């Protein structure tokens, strides 16, 4: 039996070196591998290049690595909930490769599937294809690094000709993901929307480290319920179900808000 379990998050990430590239699961604050991120922060690894849909918020998720200035580059599709991210990017401290969300997902999936690149219509006719998007600013506010021009080809798809832009796959040194359940072989089950980018990030990492809320024995998971097979997972750590799970923004109706008000004198 191949037992992929590790005793702690700290041990599981201990060999991630300076300058490593990581694919990290999560969408907003849902499905963040927070125990692994905190362990990486504690061990002091820096100069990281991270691929993730977003970068958490100022004090949680990947935002804690950003605040400690451990991240050199982010490849993301949405970065609007983190003021420190904005500050570092505009001041030239952080490099950003802004990527359309569906394209980012497919770049990760392609990397895990052995596909070197693919063509997509997303971004055709924009700076995504034509180049010139700021990736890093200089201290004086000028563009120090800009996105390159990408190859655009015309294809006739089902009788509809159109232009498509070439996007290269993403493969990273490591991947950090969160799952609801996993077995000792590394098979994973995700919880509803917390699945998000986690399976794709796992596929893209040469070494995938998964934190799970519940660890079970091989054979306990229904094969038809497994979302990611263990072939993509190399290390698995049980973190328990009582780990902190934040909600990025809670919105309720006027009636719900009124019902939750505490009466005077209560």
UniProtKB/TrEMBL annotation:
<dbReference type="InterPro" id="IPR037171">
    <property type="entry name" value="NagB/RpiA_transferase-like"/>
</dbReference>
<dbReference type="InterPro" id="IPR004165">
    <property type="entry name" value="CoA_trans_fam_I"/>
</dbReference>
<keyword id="KW-0808">Transferase</keyword>
<dbReference type="GO" id="GO:0016740">
    <property type="term" value="F:transferase activity"/>
</dbReference>
<dbReference type="Pfam" id="PF01144">
    <property type="entry name" value="CoA_trans"/>
</dbReference>
<dbReference type="InterPro" id="IPR012792">
    <property type="entry name" value="3-oxoacid_CoA-transf_A"/>
</dbReference>
<protein>
    <submittedName>
        <fullName>CoA transferase subunit A</fullName>
    </submittedName>
</protein>
């Amino acid at each position: 039996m191949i037992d992929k379990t590790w005793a702690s998050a700290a041990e599981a990430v201990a060999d991630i070196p300076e300058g490593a590239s990581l694919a990290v699961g999560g969408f907003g604050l849902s499905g963040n591998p927070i125990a692994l991120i905190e362990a990486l922060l504690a061990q002091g690894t820096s100069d990281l290049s991270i691929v993730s849909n977003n970068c958490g918020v100022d004090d949680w998720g990947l935002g804690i690595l950003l605040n400690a200035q451990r991240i050199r580059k982010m490849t993301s599709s949405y970065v609007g909930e983190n003021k420190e991210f904005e500050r570092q990017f505009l001041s030239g401290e952080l490099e950003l490769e802004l990527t359309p969300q569906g394209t980012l997902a497919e770049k990760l999936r392609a990397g895990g599937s052995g596909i070197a690149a693919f063509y997509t219509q997303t971004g055709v006719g924009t700076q995504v294809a034509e180049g010139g998007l700021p990736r890093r600013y200089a201290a004086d506010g000028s563009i120090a690094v800009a996105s390159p021009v990408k190859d655009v080809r015309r294809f006739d798809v089902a009788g509809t000709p159109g232009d498509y832009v070439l996007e290269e796959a993403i493969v990273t040194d490591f991947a950090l993901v969160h799952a609801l359940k996993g077995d000792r072989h590394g098979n994973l089950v995700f919880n509803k929307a917390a699945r998000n980018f986690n399976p794709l990030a796992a596929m893209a990492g040469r070494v995938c480290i998964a934190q799970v809320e519940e660890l079970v024995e091989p054979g306990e998971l229904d094969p038809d319920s497994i979302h990611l097979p263990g072939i993509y997972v190399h290390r698995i750590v049980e973190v328990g179900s009582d780990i902190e799970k934040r909600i990025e923004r809670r919105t309720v109706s006027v009636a719900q808000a009124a019902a939750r008000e505490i009466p005077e004198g209560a």
